[in-house]
Amino acid sequence: MKLLGISGTIVGAKPALLVKAVLNDVKKKDMNIETDLLDLREYDMQFSDGRVPERYNKDTQEIIGKMLDADFYLIGTPVFNGSIPAPLKNLFDLLPPATLRNKVMGFVAVGGTYQHYLMIENQLKPIAGYLRAYTTPSYVYAHNTHFNKENEIIDEELLERIENLAHELIFMQKSFCKAEENPKGKERVETQVV
């Protein structure tokens, strides 16, 4: 299983720090899960304009490839003007709509006010729903005060939410994998025969 963490911005460090914290917790819980961080600050991503992936630059092709190869996702974002940043929206637009279908997705976000957590509910979850992805019941929202001057997470409650999100991502992904391995009713019939 491959979990791709995405820092969906080209400015600011906190979204990537949150994504890394969840990825690290996933690895602590299950060393068999392969994790990778896609930090959009490290790529020259082109704007989506409908061309085939092979016609984009190398960085954009690599981004698309990482998205296509992942089994499940953790998306991190800052909240800009009450919304997601343009690079994250562009990432969604670069993908064939079926890419995220039936895949598990979790969210982390950082904002300057405590009310900006609603952006996850009102924007990210509907996008995931449109793309037919499964979202974790909880998510992590961090405020700037949850970090110290060195951008280290210092809030204990935030650390608990990170651990909970890591657990939910693993649980949901493994549950869906198990369901795919045991098609509807097969497990029940085998149990009854024995």
TrEMBL record:
Stretch forming the signal peptide: none
Which Pfam families would you find in this protein's record?
FMN_red
| EC number in record | 1.-.-.-
One GO MF term on file is:
oxidoreductase activity
Q: Where is the NADPH-dependent FMN reductase-like domain?
A: 1-145
User: What keywords tag this UniProt record?
Assistant: Flavoprotein, FMN, Oxidoreductase
The record's section on InterPro entries has: Flavoprotein-like_sf (IPR029039), FMN_Rdtase-like_dom (IPR005025), NAD(P)H-dep_FMN_reductase (IPR051814)
Q: List the PANTHER family.
A: FMN REDUCTASE (NADPH) (PTHR43408:SF2)
**Protein name, please?**
NADPH-dependent FMN reductase
Q: Which organism is it from?
A: Sporosarcina soli
